[in-house]
Amino acid sequence: MTNVCLFRLDDITPDMDWSKFYRVKAIFDKYKVRPLLGVVPDNGDAALVRGEYHEDFWEYMASLERSGWLIAQHGYRHVYETKDAGLLGLKKASEFAGLPYETQYDKLKKGREILQKNGLNATIFMAPGHTYDRNTLKALRRLEYTCVSDGYANLPYYTKGLLFVPSRSARPRLSPGLDTICIHCNDLGERDYGELENFLEANHQHVIPFSEILDQLWYPKKTWKVRMQERRNLLLYRIRRYAAGSERLQAYLQETWDADSRRRTRNRILGLPRLVHTRSRGRRRQK
Ligand SMILES: [Zn+2]
Fold first, then answer.
1. How much is the pLDDT for 198?
2. CATH number belonging to domain 4-220
3. How far is the CA of 80 from the centre of ligand 1 (A)?
4. DSSP string, 142-159
5. Separation in Å, CA 190 to CA 18, 67, 154, 171, 200
6. Ligand 1 center to residue 261 CA distance, Å?
7. Residue ranges of the chain with pLDDT lower than 70?
8. Where are the alpha helices (DSSP H) in 31-153?
C-alpha cells in the first residue's frame, strides 16, 4: 500500500499567533491542501495566547468550513486538570482522562455548544495532549461524535462506535500506512516553514483530505493485530523519545555508527558493555 498522510493544525484560538497561522495557511493553499482545524471552543490555556484577539474569529472559521476545511473540536478549554496519561499514554496531563464520566460529558457538551452557536459543525474530536480515557469515548459517543483524530496504528480503525484516524507525527514526514501530521502553528520557527514546503513539494501527491477518510464506508475493527501494531508503534515512539533525551545513548549511537548495517550491528553489540558500564558508573556517582 502507498503511504499517505493528512495534516491537522492544533490549538486554533482567536488569540493565536495569526502571522504564523497565515504563513502556514499560504503554504497549504499553494499545494491545495486543507488541513483539519483543531478549534479550542473556550480557550483557558494562557500558553496558547500568542497574539491579538480577533473579533471575527468565528466568522472566519465558518468561512473556512464553507470553503471545504474541516473543523475538529480540540478539547473544551485546553486546561489540563489531571496527570492521567489516558489510553495512549503519550503525556501525563489531561483535560479529560481521569475525570468522572459526567464531568467529561459536561465539558464536551459545553464545547460543542460553543462551536454550534458560532456556526461550526464538528463531529471530529481531538484531545489536548492526546489524552482521553474510556469515559471520554463513552461521552463522545453519547454526544454523537463520529471520529477521533488519534491512535497509533498504521491505518484508521473502528472501535467503540468511533472511527480513529491515527496521528503519530509532529513533523512533516511519510510514515508507514496512513498518518496525520500535527502542526502547532504557534510554535513554528523559521526552519519549519521551509521543511513543510519542501515536504509538500516532494509529497503533495501523498497528502489526502480528511473528508476522504470520512467518506469511506468501511474500516477494519480494532482487532488484536491492530492492537499489537499500535502497541509496537507506541513502544518505538517511547524508545525514540528516550534516546533523544539521553546524552549517553546519543553518544553511543554516534560512536557505533557505520554506513554498513552489518558493521553497525557489530559495533553496537561490542559497544554495549561500555554503555552499561558508563550507566552503572553514573548511578554510583549519583548515590
Ligand atoms: Zn492542543
1. 96
2. 3.20.20.370
3. 10
4. HTT--EES---SSS-EEE
5. 15, 28, 30, 14, 16
6. 39
7. 1, 278-287
8. 57-66, 101-117, 134-142
Alpha-carbon gap, residue 239 to 245, rounded angstroms: 10
For residue 58, the SS3 value is: helix
Question: 207 CA to middle of ligand 1, Å?
Answer: 22
Predicted confidence at residue 285, as pLDDT, reads 54
List C-alpha distances in Å: 197 to 26, 119, 200, 209, 282.
Answer: 10, 31, 5, 17, 43
What does DSSP say about strands 4-12 and 36-39: parallel, antiparallel, or unpaired?
parallel
Cα distances from 73 to residues 64, 143, 180, 247, in angstroms, run 15, 12, 16, 38
- Domain residue ranges in the chain: 4-220, 246-286
Rounded Cα distance between 8 and 222, Å, is 23
The pLDDT of residue 248: 80
Supply the pTM of this predicted model.
0.85
CB neighbours of 287 closer than 8 A, spacing ≥ 6?
none
CA of 39 to the centre of ligand 1 (A): 9
Phi/psi at 208 (5° precision): -115, 150
Tell me what pLDDT residue 268 has. 84
Residue with cell 548495517: 261
CA of 10 to the centre of ligand 1 (A): 5
Q: Is 91 exposed, middle or buried (0-12, 13-18, 19+ CB in 10 A)?
A: middle
Nearest Cα to Cα of residue 15 among 52, 44, 43, 47: 52
